[in-house]
TrEMBL record, chain B:
<dbReference type="GO" id="GO:0005524">
    <property type="term" value="F:ATP binding"/>
</dbReference>
<dbReference type="Pfam" id="PF13732">
    <property type="entry name" value="DrrA1-3_C"/>
</dbReference>
<dbReference type="Pfam" id="PF00005">
    <property type="entry name" value="ABC_tran"/>
</dbReference>
<dbReference type="GO" id="GO:0016887">
    <property type="term" value="F:ATP hydrolysis activity"/>
</dbReference>
<dbReference type="InterPro" id="IPR003593">
    <property type="entry name" value="AAA+_ATPase"/>
</dbReference>
<comment type="similarity">
    <text>Belongs to the ABC transporter superfamily.</text>
</comment>
<feature type="domain" description="ABC transporter">
    <location>
        <begin position="7"/>
        <end position="237"/>
    </location>
</feature>
<dbReference type="InterPro" id="IPR003439">
    <property type="entry name" value="ABC_transporter-like_ATP-bd"/>
</dbReference>
<keyword id="KW-0813">Transport</keyword>
<dbReference type="InterPro" id="IPR027417">
    <property type="entry name" value="P-loop_NTPase"/>
</dbReference>
<keyword id="KW-0067">ATP-binding</keyword>
<protein>
    <submittedName>
        <fullName>ABC transporter ATP-binding protein</fullName>
    </submittedName>
</protein>
<dbReference type="InterPro" id="IPR025302">
    <property type="entry name" value="DrrA1/2-like_C"/>
</dbReference>
<keyword id="KW-0547">Nucleotide-binding</keyword>
Length: 253, 314
């Protein structure tokens, strides 16, 4: 969490050091950079960490017994925890987004297009859902928050790595089918959604899909939404089924 | 069983992921009974209690609590249960009062009712003076008492206490024992586990003994102590016993073994044949003179050890 905020401040520190003529082109929209940058990676690591501890920590601490012997429906408990984790995630996203906005205002002067701030927030949260759900599922499967953070993190980095590599190869070989394949990766929509929506709303069409921070191309938004929905739903379901149909115990087996 | 059954565990088995096998375990707990689940560590007591709470899914057999399957309806079953786990684990930064308040909240006891309930439980468990202290600073005995206390929130009719005396010093134990006896008087059904037979013998109406994952036997404590082969008749005589008396006593059907200890005759009997009257008669008729005549009950521990030996060899 602290890392997120350090990254934000670092980002703006670097921006102020760039040549002024370069900065002028986007200084009115500098606030969006502070929202786009985390969505490339940190946001998802944060989401999967919160997901993992949301589901696994109660077993680790031994407090699961307490909650599961209350007159509480299993579904209410599960929903409560899941929503609780999401609220925490939202608060973090909200805080660093506000931070971006205020720092940008302070450093670069009045910011434009501030009316899309809520959309930026919504996009960030939605795009964080798949890895939140993946963290939740691994936490429930492994019942160790550390281990499940590592495994879910490995899934994320592997996905990003494969995506980057495939895009790179596609660029060199001019092979468009690779680009299509990449869309099945969970990181494709997660990392691409926020920059796509924001650059589109700002009217900045950078038109180099696959390049960092530029998004997936506005034409792919629906596909991205579908990918996010499917990945989130599938892993939420895995987490729920595992939760409902296994013993309440610290051991994973 | 004459009383209304509250908990029925019928040939329950559990196979854990690593292949550990528990069961078959069978228990019948009637309303208002204090039921002791005894057996050495690792024999399956906690497993059985957790199945009753709906915390784990039986691999075989049937578990029912107030007629409901606890695994399918944990929220309904837990409405009627107060549970204190073997290793109480509460947020260390909570105070005792805070834990009780949260528990009240979970049971939908709010406002003034919650105030009264918290006070009642602090009183009952003797934690009034520690209400504002953090659980992290509690002694083992205090945590156990608090754990029993949170189980009592909302006055549930069924209490499940897993090793309530574990790691508690003698003074703390006496206190917990008092609390349990008070609850028993109130007519609560209490199932508790312990590997210490002495505690179980003092507290329970009925016991089940589990060993290596199986129920060795289940009975009323009174029946066990009165009717086991370990039950002996002890007769103190006026004149010293001799071989002639031994021979005469051994002829009585139901007498298994006769031994002498100075002026005493210690006789193992088959209690189903109850030869007590004939023994006394013979001693008197042969002119040895009878000073004292009593039944010596074994401890639950002796009975348990012998049953385990039997079940292993047979
Ligand atoms: N979640 C689990 N996974 C695998 N084995 C377990 C699990 N819980 C308990 N066991 C094993 O089951 C056996 C019985 O344990 P338990 O029910 O805790 O016994 P008791 O409470 O009588 O000491 C032990 O051998 C224990 O190691
Ligand atoms: Mg145990």
């Amino acid at each position: 969490m602290a890392i997120t905020f350090l990254l934000e401040l670092g980002l703006y520190l670097v921006l102020t050091r760039l040549p002024p003529q370069f900065i002028e082109t986007f200084s009115g929209a500098a606030w969006t950079l502070g929202i786009i940058a985390p969505s490339a990676g940190l946001l998802h690591v944060l989401a999967l960490t919160i997901g993992s501890s949301t589901s696994a920590e109660e077993y680790e601490l031994g407090t699961a017994d307490y909650w599961m012997t209350r007159p509480l429906k299993r579904s209410s408990y599960f929903l409560g925890k899941t929503v609780g984790g999401l609220v925490l995630l939202f608060l973090i996203v909200f805080t660093y987004s506000i931070l971006s906005l205020s720092v940008s205002w302070y450093v670069f002067g009045p910011q434009s297009k501030v009316e899309i701030f809520p959309i930026a927030l919504a996009a960030s949260i939605a795009s964080a859902a798949p890895f939140y759900a993946i963290g939740l599922a691994f936490g429930e499967l492994l019942r160790r928050s550390m281990m499940s953070t590592i495994v879910a993190g490995a899934v994320f980095f592997a996905s990003v790595l494969v995506e980057t590599y495939a895009n790179f190869v596609a660029l060199i070989a001019g092979d468009l089918t690779l680009r299509e394949v990449v869309r099945f990766l969970p990181s494709w929509a997660s990392t691409g959604l926020t920059p796509t929506i924001l650059t589109d709303a700002l009217g900045l069409s950078l038109n180099t899909p696959g390049a960092p921070f530029t998004g997936l191309g506005a034409e792919n938004l629906w596909l991205a939404a579908a990918s996010i929905f499917i990945y989130s739903t599938v892993f939420f379901l895995i987490a729920w089924l595992r939760f409902r149909h296994s013993d309440v115990t610290r051991r994973a087996l | 069983m004459s009383k209304n059954p509250v908990v029925v565990v019928d040939s329950f088995t559990k196979v854990y992921g690593d292949g550990t096998r528990i069961g078959p375990i069978t228990l019948h707990v009637g309303e208002g009974e204090v039921y002791g689940l005894v057996g050495p560590n690792g024999s399956g007591k906690t497993t059985t209690l957790r199945a009753i709470l709906g915390l784990l899914k039986p691999s075989g057999g049937k578990v029912s609590v107030y007629g409901l399957n606890p695994y399918s309806h944990p929220e309904k079953v837990n409405q009627k249960i107060g549970y204190s786990p073997e290793i109480p684990n509460y947020p260390p930064f909570f105070t005792a009062e805070k834990l009780l308040r949260v528990t009240c909240n979970m049971k939908k006891i709010i406002g003034k009712d919650a105030d009264n309930e918290v006070r009642r439980i602090l009183d009952l468990t003797g934690l009034v003076n520690h209400a504002d202290r953090k659980i992290g600073n509690f002694s083992k005995g205090m945590v156990q008492r608090l754990s029993i206390g949170q189980a009592l929130v909302g006055d549930p009719p069924l209490l499940i206490l897993d090793e309530p005396m574990l790691g508690v010093d003698p003074v703390g134990r006496a206190h917990i024992r008092d609390v349990l006896l008070q609850l028993r008087k109130q007519g609560k059904t209490i199932i508790f586990s312990s590997h210490e037979l002495y505690e179980v013998q003092r507290l329970s109406d009925r016991v089940a003994m589990v060993y290596m994952g199986k129920t060795v036997f289940e009975d009323m404590v009174m029946n066990i102590l009165n009717n086991s082969p370990e039950t002996k008749v002890v007769a103190e005589l006026v004149s010293e016993p001799d071989g002639k008396l031994a021979k005469a006593l051994e002829e009585i059907s139901g007498v298994l073994e006769v031994a002498f200890e100075a002026n005493k005759v210690v006789i193992s009997v088959d209690s189903s044949l109850d030869p007590r009257e004939k023994i006394a008669e013979k001693i008197v008729n042969l002119g040895y003179g009878l000073r004292e005549f009593r039944i010596s009950q074994p401890s639950l521990e002796e009975v348990f050890i012998n049953r385990v030996k039997e079940s292993v060899s047979g």
